[in-house]
Amino acid sequence: MAAAAATAQPGLDAREWDEAAYRRGILRERDLSCRTLFRAVFYDQRDEADPDVLLAAASSDGSLASFSLSSCISSSASAHAAPQPAAAALVDPVCIVQAHSGPVYDAKFYNDPIQPLLFSCGDDGHIRGWRWHEMQSCLLPLSLQGDHVEPILDLVNPQHEGPWGARSPIPENNAIAISKQDGSLFAAAGDACAYCWDVESGKCKMTFKGHTDYLHSIAVREANHQVVTGSEDGTARIWDCRSGKCTQTIRPVQNKKFEGSWVGCIAIDASESWLACGTSSGISVWSLLSNECIFNADCGAPVQDLLFDKNQILAVGAEPALSRFTINGVVVSQIKCAPPSAFSVSMHSSGMAAVAGHGGLVDVISGFGSHLCAFRCRGLDR
Fold it and tell me: Which positions does the entry assign to WD repeats (predicted)?
């Protein structure tokens, strides 16, 4: 009778139950839901023959992965107009490498016309450079990827020497920026210092000291030979790249709305005249020419990344929304996005925006505000 019942209702037959596979599935799902993408950046090379748009994603599991946007769109063709995290498709990357031994906090492209490079930095204190074309031409199956690509550059933050010769832990790198003029690499580190690296020699050219707490972000102001840093100490500082000295300190936290907050992200516009600072509760925009605050906007939640899109500002943070502001602080639009907490927003020259964050989620939004696709990035889980 029992055999007959099992035959009649095969779904209740536990004789083929695989407990180990069930456990692996539960752990994989938990890992996926807890994964965070700290950066998703477009590879935006307009003269490339391949019309497909490519995206690189830096993850909390230490991986660096590349994705084909056409594949992501086809995989998530049934995504809702206002995507829900649970509805996002799980997408396999074109290539995935174990880039760092801890979370990868930032990734930036250096668009050399002959050999474009992808730089990454993370919690292990390393900055590594990867040949982008080598990552894209990978033919190995996904199950064999991870350590199949070697970095062409590996820089490590200096350790500080204490009493009796004791050395400090290697400070993490929270953000990087690249100078288009001379190819110098700048890093915002966890020891309250910023470092300038010579990529050719692999040596640290200069250290910028002055902040009293760890750095969150860094940006290059090319025309003035300056870098700007944002810190947990609540200030943004402007540094002279030739002398290494701080030339200006900006304090958005002086406003009562921002007391006790940090400067978590910064952005400089194309004319290098405006500076936007994202803090624990809003946005503060400053004129770099007059050193005056243009506006402070209270967003009600931490702003975790922002950028300039011509004369407007795009910002994301601890709420599932992509907000657009005018340079005077007027809210133009707010678009709901898939990540419940977003850590990255990037723009493509076509007008697309990619928002990435908690849950391993990426939401790609067109220049008209429609959702092209929302997907989860598969990690290094086997």
Answer: 208-249
* 33 Cβ neighbours under 8 A, 6+ residues apart: 359, 360
Calpha distance 303→289 (Å, rounded): 24
Separation CA 268–CA 330 (nearest Å): 18
| Residue 240 bridge partners (DSSP) | 226
| φ, ψ (nearest 5 deg) of residue 207 | -120, 130
Residue type for position 161: E
DSSP 359: T
SS3 342: strand
Measured between alpha carbons, how far is residue 22 from residues 13, 68, 132, 139, 283 in Å?
Answer: 15, 30, 37, 30, 46
Question: Does the predicted model carry a pTM greater than 0.85?
Answer: yes
**Tokens encoding 371:** 């959702």
Q: Of 346, 337, 340, 236, give the one whose Cα is nearest residue 291.
A: 236
72 three-class SS:
helix
Do residues 282 and 258 touch, judged by C-beta distance below 8 A? yes
| 194 contacts 208 by C-beta, under 8 angstroms | yes
> 118 with 109: CB under 8 angstroms?
yes
Share of the chain above pLDDT 90, in %: 59
> Residue 378 above 90 pLDDT?
no
The encoded tokens of residue 312 equal: 């407007």
What is the DSSP annotation of 17-51? --HHHHHHHHHHHHHHHH-BEEEEEEE--TT-S--
**Tokens standing for residue 183:** 């190819």
Pairing assessment for the beta strands 126-131 and 117-122 based on DSSP bridges: antiparallel
Give me the mean pLDDT over the 198-222 stretch: 94
pLDDT band at 6 (very low <50, low <70, confident <90, very high): very low
Structure token digits, residue 301? 């939640």
Residue 8 vs residue 122, higher pLDDT: 122
Predicted confidence (pLDDT) per residue in 344-369, tens digit: 999 999 999 999 999 999 999 998 88
Q: In 3-state terms, the chain is what percent helix, strand and coil (to 5)?
A: 15, 45, 40
d(CA 143, CA 90): 15
